[in-house]
Amino acid sequence: MQALFTKRLVSRGRLVSALLLAVVGLACDGSWLGSDSVRVTVAVDPESPLDPSIPRSSTPVEMLDDPRLKHLLEAAKEWRNRPGPAREVVDQVCVVSDLPSFLAAVSTWDERRFFPVLLDDPAWSVPFVRAFRPARIVRLRAVASAGDREPGAFEVWSRALEAVGRAWGRDEPGGRAPLAGGAFPRSLGPTSPGVVLSSPQSPTLAAAVALAAGRFQPLVHLEPMTVDKAPLGFDDAPSEAQAVEFAREIEARIAPLTTSYNQGLGDDVDFLTLAGDWPYRYRAETGKGIMSGERAVDDLIGRVLPADSHDLERALVRWAYVGRIPGDAAAGVYRAMCALFLQPESALLWNTYGGGVPWSDYEVTGAAKLLGSIRPAADAVVARSGAVADLTAWRELLLPRSRFDLLMLNSSGGPDYFSIKGGPGRPADAPFGAPMVVSMIHSFSAARPNDPSTIAGRFLDHGAYIYFGSMNEPYLTAFRTPFLVAQLIAAGTPLSASLRQGPYEQFGQPWRLVYLGDPLYRVLPTFPAQRVTRLTGAEWDRIAAGQIVPPPDVVRVGAPPKGDDAAEALDWCREAALPALGSSAEARPIAEALPGVLLAIDRGRLDPARRAVLDDLLIDQAINSDEPRAFLERLLKIPPEDRSPRVWRTIETLAEEQRQLGEAGAVEPLKAPTALRERVAVP
Predict the structure, then answer these.
(1) pLDDT digits (tens, 9 = 90+) for 119-174
(2) Is the separation of the CB atoms in 514 and 449 below 8 Å?
(3) Cβ(317)–Cβ(44) under 8 Å?
(4) pTM of the model
(5) How far is CA 393 from each of CA 352, 401, 420, rounded to the nearest angstrom?
């Protein structure tokens, strides 16, 4: 067996060049399987769920021509043929203050043009704008409700559906004709085979609207999951039977949309986005031995379930991949906009494993070469393993901010640490930086993704908009190898389908891996031309004139205030923070003035709400400045009892980076107060 494996590794190196050509061909026209290939339809009868000509196997799938992937690749052909209408991206970001204003802004999208819309929260708007670099920022003032009253749930949902419908299209040459948000936009031709589920009470309703409008998906109402009429939320763990009932309820909500949703992959519905407060885990009561324990609700949903719900090991056939949008309103919108408008420009693959099989199956060199075929710029794809993949190297390359926006990490550990030579690594070692896609082969990293003291929670807190990992002990072979995932990524397969095992693989049953983010997100095989060919704001103004009353204001930033009024100075900084990151000629002088004004603000003269805004702006400067020390020292001056958890987490990461630089003699050692030493390992 070892000799065979060694031969396989040697052959893999020679196969990469051939694979580059094959994968590009597959991404372009789906023809790599050959003209004589036959579509494999996986049977959906739970009594006989699999094609008997394709044996299930515990051996990892390595290549795209493996018969165990035929059903996925055939479906991927269908997905590539259903992108929806091509849209131009307007070179602007619109900032809004609340949900009604957000819906009004999204309503101005149509089937040919759209642009990012963000809720006004510097913790999330600033990182997005830094990555997107628009020519201008526009701000939509609050849209008042009729009679200044708070709208009820029915009205909120109706407005959300209307916004989605309006964003799907426009009558020519005059007014709009809203489409039904709860149905497929058939008049637009083949559109994404996805559905978004949310509710009017959901904190991520705005994100749901964005993904439904942006990807031409129906927006479907889903009630809270209840037990004895009591609603269950994210942190609750229902029984297996209750989770099955919830999965069946979701299927019942999908069924009225189309008669073709559970006919195997490649039909009308293959992707579900959950944007609401529903349980994340359930108690798997029928599994035995290593198969017992909690499993992921999201990996149970979207499967053909047996009539006997106590036999879930036979639920191998999937009719939809599921992704979940975590966070509050602003974070959810940030993640939706990242998924719609950003693409990774660089990738880091980090392998801490050693030894023989099965760990050697997860080496990353071949995967890095494949990813380099779609991101060919110098140093765009970096692979580290062995002696050069220790914790010191990790911190030197990634802290405090990462230049990589796709990270694939192989490790082991628990919710709050990962094994790495010289480690362990801690949540503080999750870098800040560009909005990021993270795939982590690791045990328990996503056990509590809403807790920033855990690995997944910290990556999400630091800006990851997609995270794939495990919420319980998954066992190594439950993960597809980086080499296979890279092939599927390069072939243009959505990430949720690239990362999850299928019915013919060892862990194809409902299991413990979770995908947080837009399940339809793809790393495009060719970098989008929209990056350099955006529609100008002035052109959009002419097209969209009169669609919003009052129309958005283009943000104009004047000179910094000269007095010592802390509130006035902070207001200027908040208004300047986004234009300072843009691509216009006015951005540079604003960016040069901003740090000095921030550092001069007397925090003690601000009310608590303004202090939180100041802290977020200081954090951004501390992370992204070429000279972060002054901003870190400013954060350290905040009284410990007044530091928000986000401030503490920032200090933790920055102090670790400064400690390492101090040990190397690159900077003066950081002098940290006793209260910090108790939380962070600094001198």
Answers:
(1) 999 999 999 999 999 999 999 877 765 556 788 999 999 999 999 999 998 544 44
(2) yes
(3) yes
(4) 0.91
(5) 12, 14, 10
